[in-house]
Amino acid sequence: MGKVYRSRQLALDKPVVLKVLRQSLLSDERTVARFQREAKAASRLNHPNSISILDFGQADDGALFIAMEFVPGQDLHQLLNREWPLAEGRVIRIVSQVLSALSDAHGAGVIHRDLKPENIMVEQRRNDTDFVKVLDFGIAKITDSSGEDGPALTRAGFVCGTPEYMSPEQARGASVDHRSDLYAVGVLLYQLMTGLLPFESDSAVGFATKHLTEEPPPPSKRRPDARISVGMERLILRALSKDPDDRPANAEAFKAELHALEHRERRRSEPAPRRAAASAAPMSSPVLAPLPRRGTGGSHLATQPGTVRDWDSAEATVRAVPEIIQTTPNPMPSSDHLEESAVSMGQDNPGGLGFFKILTLTLVLAAGALAYYFFFSGNSASTPYSIPENAPVPRKEDARTQGPDFSTPLHSQEIPAQALNVAKSREHEMEGDQQYQRGRLDLAATHYKNAFQLNPKPELSLKLGEVYWQHELPGEALAWWSRHLRDAPSSVARAYIVEQRKSVAGAPVP
Description:
Blueprint: E1 2-9, E2 14-21, H1 29-43, E3 53-58, E4 64-69, E5 74-75, H2 76-83, H3 88-107, E6 110-111, E7 120-123, E8 131-134, E9 141-142, H4 168-171, H5 178-194, H6 204-213, H7 219-222, H8 230-239, H9 251-269, H10 272-279, E10 300-302, H11 311-320, E11 324-326, H12 335-348, H13 354-378, H14 396-401, H15 422-437, H16 441-454, H17 458-470, H18 474-487, H19 494-502
Helix pairs in contact: 3-5, 3-9, 5-8, 15-16, 16-17, 17-18
C-alpha cells in the first residue's frame, strides 16, 4: 500500500521512518481511508512496545505520509532465520512484549489483524536485550468504546491479513475480535519454538483452508529435536483453537500463562539446596491449607495434637489446628530421652526428692477423694439427668449442613447449595489468578480452594490441578483433574490431562 523510507527529522536531527502512500493509489478512496486509519490506530497507542507515530499529513505534491519513530535492529523473521533454535525463556520474553503491546492496543479498541514476524522489530539495547516493537497497523480494526466497529473499509467477505497467520474466523471473512490476534500469537509461538509454521501450503487459499479445517500437529512431533516443554506445547495448541472461546481470554491472561511457564522451568533448573530452602518457608492461611511443600532433613515439623502428617488427609485438619513449622539445627528430644533424663535426675538425688514425692502424692489422693464425694453426693441416682421435653431431635441432615466436611478431601466433596456464593468465589478466583501470575503457587492454591468451596465450577478444579502439578505434587494434581473431568467430561483439557496421567506411574487413564 505504501513505500517506507528511512529519513531524518531536520529540526531534531533525528532518524525517523516515513511511510508514503503510492501516487497511483491516491485516487482510491478506500485505500486513502485505510492509510488514514493506520495513522489513527497507531496514534491511539502509547506503549513502549508499540511503534510511535510522530506526524501524519500531506506533502506539497499531494502524497500522504506517516512519520514514525525509527527502530534499529532486525525484525523477528530475520532473527528467526539467523538464530534459531531459540531458548524457551527467550521466546517467552519476546512474545510477552508482543502481548503487552496487544493488551494496550485492545484496551484502546484497536485490533491488529496482521501480526507476523515481519511486523515485529527486535532491538538490542544496552541494558535491555530483545526489546520488541510491534509495527504496521495498516489493516487494523478500530472499535469505539461501546464495542461497535468503525466505518467498514473492507468489502463484506473480503479476507485481509497474511494467510500463514490468519485465525479461522479471519480466514472465512467473519467478524473478528481481540482473540484473532491471540491466534496469530499462537502461530508466532509455534514458529519460534519449532522454526516451522503449523501448516504448510503453496497458496494463500491452501493456508486459509488448513486454518479452517485442520488441527495443528503438536510442535514436539513436528520438530522432535526442539526443546519444547509440555506446558508450552499445551499453551500453543490452546492458542490455536478453532473456537475463540477456547483460547486465552485476553492478552494479559496469555502473558500470565507464559510467565507461569517461565517460573516453573526456572524452579526446575534451580539447584537442590535452593529448592530445599524454599520448602522450609512458613505456610500461612487460617482458612485453608496452602500447598504443602516437601520437607527436608534439616527441618523439624512439630505438630499440635490433632494434626496429621499425611498430606492426603491433612487438608481439613490444618483448617482447625494451624501447623507449627520450626526450622532448628537440633531436633527436639524424643519422649524416651525425656524419661531417661527424669529418671537420672531422680537417681542423682535419692534423699532430697523422696519426701516431697510422697507428700505430693498424698495431697493429690486426698483432693481426688474429696472431689469424688462432693460430686456423687450432689448427683445421686435419685435425680438422674433427663432430656427437656422440647429439645429438638438431631437429624442426619444436620450433620451435613453444620459446616465443612473435614473428613473428605475437598476435591471429593459435594458443596451444598446453601453454601454457594458466586460473587465471593469470583473474588477469590481473581486473587488466585494474580498470585499465580506472580509465581506464588501456595497462595494461588489457597484462594482457588476458597473459591471452589463457594462455587465448585470445573475451571477451578482444572486450575488447582495445574497449580499442584507445577508444585510437583502429581497425586494431588491428578485428584483435582479427575474432579474436573467428572464435572466437565467433554473438557478440551482432557487430552492434556490424559497425557500427564501417563507420565505418572500407576495413575489410571480415564
